[in-house]
Backbone:
């Protein structure tokens, strides 16, 4: 593991474990006192090793999306439990320990062996914001890298995602939530 | 339409054979010396099988040619009647037991003919002056060619000239005696400009012309097999194998996905078309161009469009979703016809209806009031639609780039998928309350 003769990194990299659909969660009533949480972000390593997630940040957000906390947990589906799709509260409320930020499982196609990354998010009071993905910064030994995960969030301070300001944000992301 | 529009493209017709690339190697399963051809490495089996002659015996003098169609995007831009060249991927002679194997190196062939990750192939078998053919698509996975269309297995195609049948992966087709000029197999319905709801074109066609076509003979001569093939009857003047567009079929209903949601409280909105934030393709043969918008045929070209062209529909229970698609025949002057999706007639048509749900078990939970949107058609069941003929199943992923599904959780519920890594990694999804 490490750098090759040409200086290129030859060690393990953080991975989604295979093809991943783009998805975006829409969450209403988000604010400083009601954080949003999203999960389902499956992670594993392309080889033996240990990656430490150091930061997670929105990619090209519309408005201000604040990542309050992030953490990983072993993939719940392997024990018959559900992943965190989307919810509210803290990550601890949703079964994560924010001290857990290490991914050390090698990807095995179709096995589900790996971790679920959860994010706790918020927006400034009274605002709406969104992003189509998140950049995950990590280290493997002395090597630093990042992975962009195609999972986004639309965070609205309005009581309902169907309220006009939130609907306009959906439209900015090319989405419609129907009647 | 049809053969009456057959015409040669100036400047190409006289040079095509000189440009005919040979990517494969001749496999020496025969006891006879193989023609001198470089064997690229690594090469892998792209076609194999058995030839049975008209007398019902293994043919030790059979010939097999594997031809690759141009890449999908190169084909879709062609107007009806215009001809274009194919590529000789490889060829082989049978051994004493009638077996043949054609090995082809993936690298250069995929670069030229498989830029979208798969190859559309035509295999031509010659036995005692009779010709049969078969078509299928392959992708290169790992270090092997795999047949696409559900089989995902090593290409295997056996030709029985006594029974006039072809047995191949993924489907078998029965041959009908044909004429020498692009005859049709039984699976084709050539009526022009008719809505054919039963369109189910097999991915195989098979013909048995009384004599090899001039184009085929030119092909054989280019591979040097003709000079050692033995009892092949007199052949007309040399010609070329060409493809050209033929009959068009309009307004064919196509079931392309099921939007699956259970219980009536998690409606799913299906959005099709393009929008201001999406650079996208839709379907295999769809493009949208021009300020006012017209359905084109440039296939997988990436496009950016305005939201005014997107259409949506909301379903409160599991429902099949249809489009209407236009098709046209792709004909080969060496014989054979494939029916190709050409453009969309309409989107989100009223052809669908309630269907059963397919339960999945790898779930993510969502609380009331939230939404979950996927920007990929793979978030629902794809399949059960029209057979895409020679085009591969993987080509259907073209739908994925600008179909969006949004689930509205009016009650607490979950999105569940068929992959243990979770819904985002799943090809099949459903939504249900818990």
Residues:
């Amino acid at each position: 593991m490490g750098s090759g003769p040409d200086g290129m990194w030859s060690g393990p990299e953080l991975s989604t474990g295979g093809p991943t659909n783009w998805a975006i969660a829409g969450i209403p009533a988000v604010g400083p006192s009601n954080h949003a949480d999203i999960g389902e972000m499956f992670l594993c390593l392309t080889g033996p090793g240990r990656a430490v997630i150091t930061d997670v940040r929105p990619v090209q957000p519309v408005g201000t999306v604040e990542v309050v906390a992030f953490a990983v947990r072993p993939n719940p589906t392997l024990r018959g439990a559900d992943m965190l799709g989307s919810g509210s509260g803290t990550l601890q409320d949703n079964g994560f320990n924010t001290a857990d930020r290490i991914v050390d499982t090698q990807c095995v196609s179709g096995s589900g062996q790996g971790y679920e990354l959860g994010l706790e998010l918020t927006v400034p009071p009274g605002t709406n914001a969104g992003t189509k993905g998140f950049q995950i910064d990590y280290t493997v030994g002395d090597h630093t890298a990042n992975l962009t995960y195609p999972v986004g969030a639309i965070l609205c301070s309005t009581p309902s995602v169907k309220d006009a300001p939130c609907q306009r944000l959906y439209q900015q992301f090319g989405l419609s939530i129907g009647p | 339409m049809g053969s009456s529009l057959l015409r040669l493209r100036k400047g190409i017709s006289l040079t095509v054979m000189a440009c005919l690339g040979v990517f494969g190697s001749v496999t020496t399963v025969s006891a006879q010396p193989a023609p001198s051809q470089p064997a690229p490495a690594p090469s892998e089996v792209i076609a194999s099988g058995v030839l049975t002659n008209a007398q019902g015996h293994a043919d030790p003098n059979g010939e097999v040619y594997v031809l690759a169609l141009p890449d999908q995007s190169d084909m879709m831009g062609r107007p009806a009647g215009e001809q274009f060249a194919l590529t000789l991927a490889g060829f082989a002679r049978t051994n004493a037991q009638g077996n043949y194997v054609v090995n082809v190196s993936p690298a250069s062939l995929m670069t030229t003919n498989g830029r979208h990750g798969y190859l559309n192939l035509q295999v031509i078998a010659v036995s005692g002056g009779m010709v049969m053919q078969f078509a299928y698509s392959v992708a290169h996975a790992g270090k092997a060619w795999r047949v696409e269309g559900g089989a995902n297995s090593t290409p295997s195609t056996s030709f029985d000239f006594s029974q006039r049948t072809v047995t191949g992966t993924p489907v078998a087709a029965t041959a009908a005696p044909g004429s020498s000029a692009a005859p049709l197999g039984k699976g084709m319905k050539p009526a022009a400009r008719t809505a054919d709801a039963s369109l189910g074109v097999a991915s195989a066609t098979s013909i048995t012309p009384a004599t090899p076509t001039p184009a085929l003979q030119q092909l054989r001569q280019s591979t040097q097999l003709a000079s050692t093939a033995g009892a092949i009857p007199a052949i007309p003047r040399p010609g070329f194998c060409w493809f050209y567009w033929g009959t068009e079929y309009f307004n064919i209903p196509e079931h392309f996905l099921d939007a699956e949601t259970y219980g009536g409280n998690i409606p799913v909105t299906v959005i099709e078309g393009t929008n201001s934030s999406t650079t996208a393709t839709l379907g295999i043969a769809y493009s949208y161009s021009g300020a006012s918008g017209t359905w084109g045929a440039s296939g997988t070209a990436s496009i950016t469009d305005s939201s005014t062209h997107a259409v949506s529909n909301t379903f409160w229970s599991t429902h099949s979703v249809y489009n209407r698609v236009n098709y046209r025949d792709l004909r080969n002057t060496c014989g054979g016809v494939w029916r190709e999706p050409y453009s969309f007639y309409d989107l989100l048509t009223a052809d669908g209806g309630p269907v059963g749900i397919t339960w999945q078990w790898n779930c993510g939970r969502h609380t009331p009031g939230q939404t979950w949107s996927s920007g990929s058609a793979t978030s629902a069941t794809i399949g059960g639609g029209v057979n895409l003929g020679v085009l591969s199943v993987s080509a259907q992923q073209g739908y994925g780039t600008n179909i969006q599904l949004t689930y509205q959780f009016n009650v607490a519920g979950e999105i569940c998928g068929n992959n243990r890594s979770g819904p985002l990694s799943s090809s099949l999804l459903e939504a249900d309350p818990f």
